Amino acid sequence: MKQLQEKIVSEGRVLSESVLKVDSFLNHQIDPVLMDAIGEEFASRFAGSGVTKILTIESSGIAPAMMAGLKMGVKPVFARKSKSLTLTDHLYTASVHSFTKNVTSEIAVSKDFLDKDDVVLILDDFLANGQAVLGLLEIIEQAGASLAGVGIVIEKGFQPGGKTIRERGIRVETLANIKTMENGKVEFFEEATV
Ligand code: 5GP
């Protein structure tokens, strides 16, 4: 997605060879015009997949998931990172190791909002080692729901997450796939989807 690639080049900051900061339009301040285009792109890529629900993780997945949900006419649900201990019996839970924070946390989704009749589209802001997506897959499995695929705003294609998920036969659609961030310069794979 050209518009997204241009935004990453103009506003993204390469913090190290593996971490990209996009606080000005996705992870802190949010660009609604760009989110609108991102929502439209996901809706078009997953049109006809029978999606009934979008599943993401708080907090950075919420903005793109919200816009995609609006375009697709389905409700996004976000996995929460802190769960109320009084409600554990009514939750699907999974452990996720955070790439950026280097901590493992429990994510949880209420059984009220996901069940076996759902066809789920997983959406997230970044794909690095794939831990967040694997955690969400575990939750979908617990719910007995089906999976339409995974949509990612920014994939770091030089990290193993994309391969891990695709090797399971899962469809992964990426809007900007980064090939390298060496010397502070972001370079993309030719095609948005690899
Ligand atoms: P994974 O679970 O695939 O290893 O990492 C994906 C999660 O880590 C995303 O939900 C995202 O919040 C965070 N993340 C991974 N890499 C980056 C990065 O380079 N920049 C930012 N801002 N977040 C990242």
UniProtKB/TrEMBL annotation:
GO terms for biological process: purine ribonucleoside salvage; xanthine metabolic process; XMP salvage. The keyword Glycosyltransferase applies. Its EC number is 2.4.2.22. Signal peptide: none annotated. It is found in: Cytoplasm. 5-phospho-alpha-D-ribose 1-diphosphate binds at A128, N129, G130, Q131, A132. Pathway: Purine metabolism; XMP biosynthesis via salvage pathway; XMP from xanthine: step 1/1. The keyword Ribosomal protein does not apply. Keywords: Cytoplasm, Glycosyltransferase, Purine salvage, Transferase. It catalyses: XMP + diphosphate = xanthine + 5-phospho-alpha-D-ribose 1-diphosphate. CDD domains: PRTases_typeI (cd06223). Converts the preformed base xanthine, a product of nucleic acid breakdown, to xanthosine 5'-monophosphate (XMP), so it can be reused for RNA or DNA synthesis. This is Xanthine phosphoribosyltransferase. It comes from Planococcus halotolerans.
